[in-house]
Write a structure and sequence with these properties.
Layout lengths: L12 H24 L1 H5 L14 H28 L1 H26 L9 H6 L9 H19 L6 H18 L2 H43 L7 H9 L5 H4 L3 H14 L10 H11 L13 H25 L9 H11 L9 H14 L9 H23 L4 H4 L5 E4 L3 E3 L2 E14 L4 E7 L8 E7 L2 E8 L4 E7 L6 E7 L20 E3 L5
Helix pairs in contact: 1-3, 1-13, 1-16, 3-15, 4-6, 4-7, 4-15, 6-7, 6-8, 6-14, 6-15, 7-8, 8-9, 8-14, 11-12, 11-13, 14-15
Length: 526
């Protein structure tokens, strides 16, 4: 993950990326540990609630691992392209531009009912179009980045001028239909950077081409300002003084405040990569606020601060500064596009979209020069020291999850699937192993029933304080009514296990992949 002996200069893009990737991996491990807790791992338990809304650890772990997968794939792509040569990078950029154009063309097809409609109910309701991208925001950013590269190629030998102009028109349409304000910002900043960097001679042709593209965007914005989901309607909402500021800013001030609060809780290690979204409900509760859905912080740098702590934030900032140095160079517009994208990260965590991350790191590989062969020893050690310090912070943070009170913080039980409602009322399926925690002097009534399509008996056992407290054989359809009590002086954890469970998908009953043990009901004690 991090080569302490041969890592490039930490002040260069390559060296910073190596150190930052190591931090991302460690932060993901921390996020997984905080979601599951070491206490639950040692007791072979899962399905812990990770927030006050009852989100289960499997969903939280999925989100965090996906964040790492997106960023690490982009970094891997970057290093492959760095070693592939300039010609390979140029061909890859050409292919990417065509791919983004196809994605934008699909959005045009969606507008004309010629392509499949949005699969997400949320995006259908907003009227925004994603074409072939992950979502409308991703399409807008892809088109914005692609427009900068296409504009640069109109006046270089990297591609035919007419083809680049045609691609730019299609990308403009995709940008407008996506409704992405960040994508529009990337395009406009990229245009400005290209014009300034080319100087007086080359800047005139670029300025004329950019003016034509801006005019096309402006005409589309004005004509579609009443069309739901388009950039025109979204810009109109931003300037509408009758709407609440929070709505016009997509709740970003509240998200930023929540990110700062998470950083204050964990200033060195952070909350863990991808953990902000599933910790957000509790952060909002502490602030006395609420949002209808989980979200990212709306700022990639604040997200780095909240999720990877001070060290991750500094490395992220160092990467941005290192790449911004090359914003004024690059024949294919890679530097200008990258610089504009880094500025747009102030308003969103855009590089967590898989397609956007790959395009960003492709452009970064085009913009950044080759790393220096000779490096100074102290700079080589600096990256290793930062990673080592972060690793120690992660270990200390992970050790704090060895306590049962941390494991049962948001729900009294662990090992229970999400609540379901049947003819007799609410119930929970358990796994083969599950547990409940009782406060001192507290009590709980728990009914466990054995419903199985396999028609076989099972053995139910319960342990507390390291000793066997209960054992019972249950036949299909049989239930047991338990009244549990806590200790007199301290909390008590009762761990249950059953001898067998079933997975509906393996039995051909449904597509349900869950491991199902017993049906649990928690009636109120009389």
């Amino acid at each position: 993950l991090y080569d302490f002996e041969s890592a490039a200069d930490p002040s260069s893009v390559d060296g910073i990326l190596r150190a930052l990737t190591a931090v991302w991996v460690l932060a993901t491990l921390l996020s997984v540990v905080r979601a599951r807790t070491l206490w639950a791992v040692l007791h072979r338990l899962s399905l812990r609630a990770v927030n006050g809304e009852g989100l289960l650890d499997a969903a939280a772990i999925h989100d965090s691992v996906l964040c790492l997968a997106v960023l690490a794939t982009g970094v891997g792509y970057f290093f492959i392209l760095r070693r592939a040569g300039a010609a390979a990078r140029s061909r890859a950029l050409t292919a990417a531009l065509w791919g983004v154009a196809v994605s934008a063309a699909l959005a045009i097809g969606q507008l004309g009912k010629l392509a499949p409609a949005e699969t997400s109910g949320f995006w259908r309701a907003t009227g925004r179009l994603s074409g072939g991208a992950v979502d409308p925001n991703a399409l807008g950013l892809l088109c914005g980045l692609g427009l900068v590269a296409a504009l640069a190629r109109m006046w270089t030998g990297s591609g035919r001028r007419g083809v680049s102009a045609g691609l730019a028109v299609v990308l403009t349409a995709g940008l407008v239909l996506s409704g992405s304000r960040s994508g529009l910002l990337v395009a406009l900043l990229g245009f400005l950077t290209l014009i300034v960097s080319r100087g007086r001679a080359g800047g005139r042709k670029l300025a004329l081409s950019a003016a034509v593209l801006v005019l096309l965007i402006g005409l589309a914005v004005v004509s579609l300002r009443k069309s739901p989901g388009s950039i025109g309607s979204r810009l109109s909402q931003v300037m509408d003084q009758s709407l609440p500021l929070e709505y016009r800013a997509s709740a970003r001030p509240l998200l930023w405040e929540s990110a700062v609060l998470l950083f204050r809780r964990h200033p060195l290690a952070g909350g863990g990569l991808g953990s902000f979204s599933w910790q957000l409900p509790d952060l909002l509760t502490e602030l006395g606020r609420a949002l209808p859905m989980r979200d990212n912080p709306g700022n990639a740098y604040l997200q780095a601060l909240a999720e990877t702590g001070a060290i991750g934030f500094l490395l992220t900032l160092a990467l941005a500064v290192a790449l911004l140095r090359f914003s004024w160079s690059g024949p294919d517009g890679g530097g200008a596009a990258v610089g504009a994208f880094l500025v747009s990260l102030l308003g969103g965590s855009h590089w967590f979209a898989p397609d956007v991350a790959l395009f960003f790191f492709l452009l970064a590989s085009v913009a950044a020069p080759a790393p220096r062969a000779a490096i100074q020893a102290w700079r080589r050690r600096l990256g290793g020291a930062l990673v080592a310090i972060y690793a120690v912070a992660v270990v200390f943070a992970a050790v704090s999850t060895l306590r049962p009170d941390v494991t049962f913080r948001y729900r009294q039980g662990v090992g229970f699937h999400a609540k379901e409602v049947g003819p007799g009322g609410p119930f929970y399926w358990t796994q083969r192993r599950f547990a409940v925690r009782l406060e001192p002097g507290g009590g709980l009534r728990l009914i466990l029933a054995h419903f199985t399509p396999e028609g076989q008996n099972l053995e139910l056992t319960a342990q507390t304080d390291g000793r066997l407290a209960y054992s019972r054989s249950l036949s299909p359809g049989q239930a047991v009514d338990l009244r549990l009590s806590g200790g007199s002086a301290q909390a008590r954890v009762i761990e249950f296990s059953v001898s067998r469970a079933f997975v509906p998908k393996r039995l051909g009953l449904s597509s349900d992949r869950r491991e199902l043990g017993l049906v649990a009901v928690f009636p109120k004690s009389p």
